[in-house]
Amino acid sequence: MAIAFLAAYLIGSIPAAWIIVQLRSNRDVSITGSNNVGALNALRVSRSPWVGIVVMILDGLKGSAAIWTATRLGLDGEPLHLQCAALAGVVGGHNFNPWLSIAHRKIAGGKGFAAGAGALLTFRPWLVPVWLGVLISSWYAFKAARGITDEAPASGVATLSLIPAGFLIYGVPTMWAGVAFSALIVPKLVHEVITLWRAGPPGESSATDDAAEDAADGVEADEAPAS
């Protein structure tokens, strides 16, 4: 299992977004925009939808390649256990990229959604529509409740849903794969989610702020010279 994890980690560490954006725009996506080494930030930095699509496909192929490699290296162990190790490895390599982290002397990487989706489609395909369904419904729920249109909160909820979904559809080993997957993805979203939730709906000021502004307007009116 350790070899399967390491091989998948190395596959996941290929920074597709960084390479494509460097070739097209000569910009470092790991320190530009949201600093996320993934398809969405590649799209934003390059301002090209095609770049985002290509990066998403390549990251998905990394996930598929990791599962394919783990099951065909002739390693000792149950195939499912090797596949679960490969899932954790490819997402770990993508999210905590060793090459970019060393270059910038800080943790750099992506969120692992495309790589994880590619891996799941290869060996546990029914989890992907569950993931997408929870993602979409959660996004609308957060938008309705707090006016939040960022994908981070919904992505966190959708990823955590893979734990019970994996158990109900495929059994205990897949549940633990969901736990490992969530442990690698959700912590990167927690800070962003908390910040968004505390900020409240965009453009909406609190009652305290409104009262302060009214008081300031009143003071300015009193101080204005009579005409």
Q: Can you give a write-up of this model?
A:
With 227 residues, this protein is mostly helical. It has 2 domains: 1-119, no CATH class; 124-203, no CATH class. It has 12 helices and no strands. The protein has helices at 2-12, 16-25, 39-46, 49-72, 79-95, 98-104, 113-123, 127-146, 152-160, 162-169, 172-199, 207-223. The longest helix has 28 residues, at 172-199.
Using brief descriptors, characterize the structure shown.
12 helices, single chain, mainly alpha, 75% helix, 227 residues, 2 domains
Classify the helix fraction into a percent range.
Answer: over 70%
What is the averaged pLDDT score? Answer: 84
Q: Spans of 5+ residues with little confidence (pLDDT < 50)?
A: 203-224
Q: What is the first-to-last residue Cα distance? A: 84 Å
Total count of domains? 2
Task: Provide the succession of SSEs.
Answer: HHHHHHHHHHHH
Note the overall shape: globular
Helix count from the secondary structure assignment: 12
Structural class: mainly alpha
Q: Tell me the fraction of residues in β-strands, as a range.
A: under 5%
Total number of strands: 0
Radius of gyration: 22 Å
* Major sheet size, sense and barrel closure: none
Brief characterization of the structure:
The chain has 227 residues and is mainly α.
